Every structure is written in C-alpha cells, then in structure tokens.
From TrEMBL:
Subcellular location as annotated: Cell membrane
This protein's GO CC annotations: plasma membrane
One Pfam family cited in the UniProt record for this chain: OAD_beta
UniProt record, GO biological process: sodium ion transport
UniProt topology in membrane: Multi-pass membrane protein
KW Membrane (keyword) present: yes
Keywords, in A-Z order: Cell membrane, Ion transport, Membrane, Sodium, Sodium transport, Translocase, Transmembrane, Transmembrane helix, Transport
Organism, as annotated: Desulfoscipio gibsoniae DSM 7213
Keyword Oxidoreductase among record annotations: no
Position of the signal peptide: none
InterPro entries linked to this entry: OadB_MmdB
Single GO term (MF): lyase activity
Name recorded for this polypeptide: Sodium ion-translocating decarboxylase, beta subunit
Transmembrane segments: 12-35, 42-60, 80-101, 113-141, 161-184, 205-232, 281-299, 311-330, 342-369
Amino acid sequence: MEQLAEIFSGVGITQLTLGNVTMWLIAFVLFYLAIKKGVEPLLLLPIGFGVFAANFPLTGLLEEGGLFYIFYHFGIENELIPPLIFLGLGAMTDFGPVIANPKTLLLGAAAQLGVYGAFFGALLVGFTVAEAACIGIIGGADGPTSIFLSANLAPHMMGSVAVAAYSYMALVPIIIPPIAKLLTTKEERAMVMNMTRMPSKTEKIVFPILASIVIILLVPKSAPLIAMFMLGNLFMESGVVERLTNVSRDQLMNIVTIILGVGVGSTMTAETFLNPKTIGVFAMGVVAFAFATAAGVLLAKLMNLFVKNKVNPLIGAAGVSAVPMAARVVHNMGTEANPQNYLLMHAMGPNVAGVIGTAVAAGAFIAAIL
C-alpha cells in the first residue's frame, strides 16, 4: 500500500491546483491572440507555451538543471538573450532617417517621459522602486529591453511585464491614434514634410561607432544592449560581412526568440503570477504607453515654435520604440488627413531613436537602483 501511495503521489494530476488550471487558461488566451488574432505571434506563442508547460506539476522543468531553468538562468538571468535580440534588431535597422534629420532624436527621447511618468505613478500606488522601474519601461514598447530590465531588477515580475510590453506593442494601432488625434488638429496631421537628404555610406558606417561612444560613456549600464544594437547595424552598413548580417537577423534571431519566449513564459507560474500586482502591471503599462505617445506629440508641437523646417506632430507619436509598427501607424494617420502625405521615412527617425532611448532609460534605472 505504501508503494502504491508513493506511485500515486508521483502522478501529476494528484498535485494539480486551481492556480495551475487558471494559468493554463491564460496560456490558451495567449495562444488565441497569437494564432487567431495575429498579435505578436513570434513572441506570444512561445511565451504562451512556456506558461502552459511550466504549470504542469512535478515536471522538474523549473528545478536546477531542468530545461526551462537552463533557458531562464543561462539565457535571460545572465543577460545573454536580450542583447542578442538587439544584435538582430541592429542588423535590420536603417539609421538613415535619424542621420538625415537629427532633431528627430529629441522626439524619441521625449517619448521616454512616459517611462518616467509611469515610474513615479507606480511608486505612488505602492510598487517598490525596482518594480516601478520595470513597469515604467513598458512605456517604451520594447519587449527585449523590458525583459532585460526585469531580469536585473525584479525577476518575479518578468512574465507579467513581458506579456504587457508585447501586448501593448501589438495594440499600437489602437492606442496611438486616439491620443495623437486628441493632441493635434487636422491641419497639423495633414502637414507635408519636405524630403530629407540621403545620408552617405560613410555617415552610416560612422554613426553606430559614434553613437556607441556617446551613449555608453554617458550611461555605461546600457552597454549590453547598445553595443550589440550598434554592432548589428555596423554589420549591415559595412557591406563586408553579409553572412554575419544574415545570420544575425534571421537564424540567430529566430533561435533566441524561441528561447526568450519559452524562458519568459516559464516564469509565469501560478505562485508568481496570480496576485494583485499583476493587474497593476497591466494597468500602469497602459498609462506608461499613453504618456510616451503624448510626450512625443507635444514635443513636436513645441519644436515647431522654434525651428524653420516644421515637423508633422504625428511623427512624435512614433517615438515609442515599437519598430516599425508605430511609424506605419503614424504614416497611415498622415495619409488619412492628406492623401499626398508620406510620413513613413520621417516617422522612422523618432521610431529608431525610441529604441535607443528606451535602452538608455533601462541602463539609467539599473545604475540608479542596483
């Protein structure tokens, strides 16, 4: 009888809890969003399966030496995967719009005001400093940066922060338009911007090197993300390492995306996810995103009071770093107001600047809190 009892206790169904089943339902929601609705499927599908598998009892997946433990500990906790994601992003990013119109860097920086606004808001409602920083970074709409910061400051919040960040990235076409329209007139949205110059090949090669020097000297803790981002871009712009460029943005990017998604999802066990703070993360994430969008638009309007070459205020909304979705949304809004309007390349300036700004903000939080 003792042997039978021991065998029975080793069957997973005997250890299944209501919390496990609840997390399965959350995983199924992520599956639905990824498969049926097409919401960030490359991330939400592996994250959802990570949630699903991590909430089976007695598997040992999360114990030291288990598969998911290896994914999380060596890939995320040790800060390997997010920088590799940035390497791939760099190999896909064209800094031409930023080089041609440097003032768009300010619009990307302005969007980071949403990060700090949500940070102070989270502090006011009772989150710790480290938790508030992780919530604030959601406003940057940059999943890898959110994961990188959470791994450093609040690992217990990584799952909820990651899902919130990627969910709001997918909701960019829904969140940005009402805020941008509220803060602009139809005449402003219809403003046609002059075509900017085409940067030279030399400028594009020098930019990632110069940007690395300036940013990393100012915010050293941003180095893991910024260095890999700029390396990937240098691969692409140099034109002499096509194999490395292709691997960085294709095969390597795909592999690390799978490990990242499953590793993040595995942190979302019933014990860590089912608590009031999770709801707070999603609520404050909306605030962060809204503040970031509004700050970019308002700075563009302020900038127009002092510069000769006016900018369409809509491009300020692209300062959130959901590349290139935010730029496409801004372009569509401009075309809606004026069919002759073509804002895509102009919007890519603050869009790319937003990626850099969010990474810098993460580095600043790490330096200030750790």
